[in-house]
């Protein structure tokens, strides 16, 4: 069982969803909480090596069942899933707005911000 914690970025996105989509995301997160990350619909994301991430970033993508919605999250060592942000894959594929590598960068920045790291300065 995972404890689910949402970032402000995720909460803002979630509040913008139509009721039926918000319910689908809630159901997906409930399943994540009870079954963990080892389940169909969840994919471990290998952070691109060119990002030069110096910490282990156990990043996952959750596909929300019967929708084009996707949610990025990190599983921390204390069995907490930090839900970073969500997006609509159908909209993205139609306008090709954000490639996968950009999602890795965005997810890492949201996570580091959540953890209180300053992402504007090189380490």
Describe, in plain words, how this protein is organized in 3D.
This protein is an alpha+beta fold and 123 residues long. It has a single domain (3-114), classed as YaeB-like fold (2-Layer Sandwich). It has helices at residues 8-15, 19-35, 89-95, 100-114; strands at residues 3-6, 42-45, 59-63, 69-75, 80-88. Strands 1-5-4-3-2 form a 5-stranded mixed sheet. A hairpin with a 5-residue loop joins strand 3 (59-63) and strand 4. It is globular and about 40 Å long. It starts with a strand and ends in a 9-residue tail after the last helix.
The gyration radius over C-alpha positions equals: 14 Å
What general outline do the C-alpha atoms trace? globular
Could you state the CATH homologous superfamily? Answer: RelE-like
CATH topology: YaeB-like fold
According to DSSP, the number of beta strands is 5
Counted by DSSP, the helix tally is 4
Describe the biggest sheet? 5 strands, mixed
Query: Which CATH-level-2 architecture?
Result: 2-Layer Sandwich
Structural class: alpha+beta
Order of helices and strands: EHHEEEEHH
Physical arrangement of strands within the biggest beta sheet: 1-5-4-3-2
Number of domains: 1
N-end to C-end Cα span: 34 Å
> Are there runs of 5+ residues with pLDDT below 50, and where?
118-123
Overall average residue pLDDT: 83
Percent helix? 25-40%
Using the coordinates above, name the CATH class: Alpha Beta
Q: What percentage of amino acids are in beta strands?
A: 15-25%
């Amino acid at each position: 069982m995972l404890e689910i914690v949402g970032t402000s970025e995720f909460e803002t996105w979630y509040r913008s969803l139509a009721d039926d989509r918000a319910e689908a995301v809630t159901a997906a997160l409930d399943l994540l909480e009870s079954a963990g990350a080892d389940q169909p619909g969840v994919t471990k994301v290998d952070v691109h090596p060119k990002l030069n991430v110096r910490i282990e970033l156990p990043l996952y993508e959750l596909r929300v069942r019967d929708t084009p919605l996707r949610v990025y999250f990190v599983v921390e060592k204390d069995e907490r899933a930090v839900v970073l942000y969500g997006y609509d894959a159908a909209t993205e594929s139609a306008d090709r707005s954000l490639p996968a590598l950009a999602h890795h960068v965005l997810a890492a920045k949201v996570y580091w911000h959540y953890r209180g790291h300053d992402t504007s300065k090189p380490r």
